[in-house]
Specification:
alpha/beta, 5-stranded mixed sheet, 10 helices
Length: about 450
C-alpha cells in the first residue's frame, strides 16, 4: 500500500492578535490559539500555496479583516478565494479544505492542500548463519550443549536456522505492496569470518521478483562459519548509505545467535582485538550511521546471552531502544535489554515472528514530511475512507515514545534528540487505523497551536 498524504496549510485569519479575546484574555477552550474579532493594522506574513510563510498580508482598516495573501510567483486567480466558498467573505486567499471539529472551534482555518508520498523505508536484513544456527533452540537443546557440539540434538525438530528462515519469509512477505524496499545479507560469507559489502540480495522494492530472490537466497544457504557481527554491520551501513543510496528512512536489522568472534584480526582467542572491534562499532560506526539516517534494530536469538551488553548498546546507540529505561552501558557484559532479547523464551519461533512483525511495523511507520520545517504550529488529522465524505479526525500531539503508549502524532527526532520539524510520526492506535485503511487520507495543518493529549 502506497499512501498519499495531503498537507493542509492554514491561514489564520485575523491572526495578528491570535489567542486573545477583546479583553486580552485567552479564549476559553482554545489553548491560546483562537483568532480575534479584528486584525491589527499593518503588514504581516502569511502562508503561500507552496506551504512556505513567505507571503505578505495587510489589514483592511475599514472592515477589520485581513486582505488576501500576496505571494510572489502565484497568480491572483490562485490567491483569491472562490466566491462560491462559504469562507470567501473572510478574506482567505487559499482553497478551502475541511479541518477537524476541534480546529474549527479555535480558529478560522481555511486551507490549501499539498500532496506528497509517505516517507519510504529501506531495510537491510543482516542475518547470522554461523555454525551454531544448526542447533535446536531451547528447550530441545540447551545453549551450553550447542556450544559444545553445534549440531541439532534432535534432527526431527526445527533448528534455529530453519525457524529463522521461515520467520524471515513471513516478515518479508508482509512488506509486499508497501512503500518498503528490502535486501538480505548473511554472515559469514566464506564459512569463517568473511563479510561482504554487497548483499546477497540487494535492496529493492518488495514486489514478487524481490520476494522470490530473497526466498531463494534463504533456501540456498545453511549454517556454517563464525560470527563477524562488527564487520557485517559496518558494511551494511556502508551499503545503504554509499552504494545503494537507499531512499527514505533506512534500517539495518541485525539477527544473531552469538557473540562477536572475528574482530579485526579474525581470531576468536584475541580478546583484546574483539573488544576493540566492539568499541569501534559502538563509538564510531553506529554513530555515523545514525547521522546518515540509518537506524539499527537488533534481535538476539538463543545463544546470544553473552552478547546482551553489546546488542543492547547497539540498539540504544542505533536509535531503536525498546524503552526509555532499558539497560545498556557495558558492551562486554551479559546484561542489557534494549534489543529484542529472545533468549529467555521457550518458543523461539513465536517470539521471533513477533519481533520481526514489530520491527516491520516500526520501519514502515506512519511518518510524513511537513511542508514547513521551521514551524511548531502543526496539527495532524486523518480522514477515513468510505461513502458520505467522513469528517476528519484530529490527532493530538503526544510526546510519549511511540513504543510506550503514545496515541497521536509527534515530531521526528534528530540524532541529538532534538525535534525534527520537517517530519511528523503518527503513533499507536492512530497509526494502526491509518495503516488498516488504504483509502484514508492524512493532513498536516499549519498555523494552529497543536492540540495536546489531555
Amino acid at each position: 500500500m502506497k499512501r498519499i498524504i495531503s498537507f493542509v496549510v492554514t491561514a489564520l485569519l485575523l491572526s495578528a492578535c491570535a489567542g486573545e479575546d477583546e479583553g486580552g484574555s485567552p479564549m476559553p477552550g482554545t489553548g491560546g490559539s483562537a483568532a480575534p474579532a479584528t486584525c491589527a493594522l499593518g503588514q504581516q506574513t502569511c502562508h503561500c500555496p507552496d506551504g512556505t510563510m513567505t507571503g505578505l498580508q495587510l489589514c483592511d482598516p475599514n472592515t477589520g479583516n485581513l486582505l488576501p495573501c500576496s505571494c510572489s510567483g502565484f497568480s491572483m486567480e490562485e490567491m483569491m478565494p472562490d466566491p462560491a466558498s462559504p469562507a470567501a467573505d473572510a478574506g482567505n486567499a487559499m482553497e478551502v479544505t475541511r479541518v477537524c471539529t476541534e480546529l474549527q472551534g479555535i480558529a478560522e482555518c481555511d486551507a490549501r492542500s499539498y500532496a506528497s508520498t509517505e516517507i519510504p523505508a529501506s531495510v537491510l536484513f543482516v542475518v547470522d548463519r554461523s555454525g551454531s544456527m544448526a542447533c535446536n533452540p531451547p528447550p530441545v537443546q540447551t545453549v551450553e550443549a550447542c556450544n559444545e557440539t553445534p549440531i541439532a540434538a534432535n534432527p526431527m525438530m526445527p533448528s534455529r536456522w530453519q525457524i529463522t528462515v521461515e520467520a524471515l519469509k513471513e516478515a518479508l512477505g508482509g512488506l509486499q505492496d508497501t512503500n518498503a524496499a528490502a535486501g538480505l545479507t548473511f554472515f559469514s560469507v566464506d564459512n569463517a569470518c568473511g563479510v561482504n559489502s554487497t548483499p546477497n540480495v540487494g535492496v529493492h522494492p518488495v514486489e514478487k521478483p524481490q520476494l522470490d530472490a530473497m526466498s531463494a537466497a534463504l533456501d540456498g544457504i545453511g549454517p556454517r562459519g563464525g560470527t563477524p557481527i562488527v564487520g557485517s554491520t559496518v558494511l551494511a551501513y556502508a551499503h545503504l548509505h554509499q552504494e545503494a543510496k537507499a531512499p527514505g528512512n533506512r534500517y539495518v536489522v541485525l539477527l544473531t545467535d552469538g557473540e562477536e568472534s572475528c574482530g579485526f584480526a579474525g581470531k576468536e582467542e584475541d580478546t583484546a582485538d574483539l573488544a576493540a572491534a566492539r568499541k569501534h562499532l559502538l563509538e564510531v560506526e553506529v554513530q555515523k550511521a545514525l547521522e546518515a539516517n540509518i537506524r539499527t534494530f537488533v534481535i538476539g536469538a538463543p545463544g546470544s546471552e553473552g552478547a546482551r551488553g553489546l546488542l543492547s548498546q547497539l540498539a540504544a546507540a542505533g536509535g531503536t531502544a525498546r524503552s526509555t529505561d532499558c539497560v545498556h552501558g557495558d558492551p562486554d557484559s551479559d546484561v542489557g535489554d534494549c534489543h529484542y532479547d529472545l533468549t529467555k523464551s521457550e518458543d523461539f519461533a513465536q517470539v521471533l515472528r513477533d519481533a520481526l512483525g514489530d520491527i516491520s511495523g516500526q520501519a514502515l511507520g506512519c511518518e510524513f514530511p511537513t511542508p514547513n520545517a521551521l514551524s511548531r504550529s502543526i496539527n495532524v488529522q486523518y480522514t477515513a475512507s468510505g461513502d458520505g465524505a467522513p469528517a476528519p479526525t484530529c490527532l493530538a500531539l503526544d510526546e510519549r515514545p511511540c513504543n510506550a503508549g503514545a496515541d497521536g502524532f509527534q515530531f521526528a527526532k534528530r540524532p541529538d534528540g532534538s525535534d525534527d520539524l520537517s517530519k511528523v510520526i503518527i503513533c499507536g492506535a492512530a497509526c494502526d487505523r491509518i495503516k488498516n485503511d488504504p483509502g484514508a487520507s492524512v493532513d498536516v495543518i499549519l498555523g494552529c497551536a497543536p492540540l495536546m493529549v489531555e
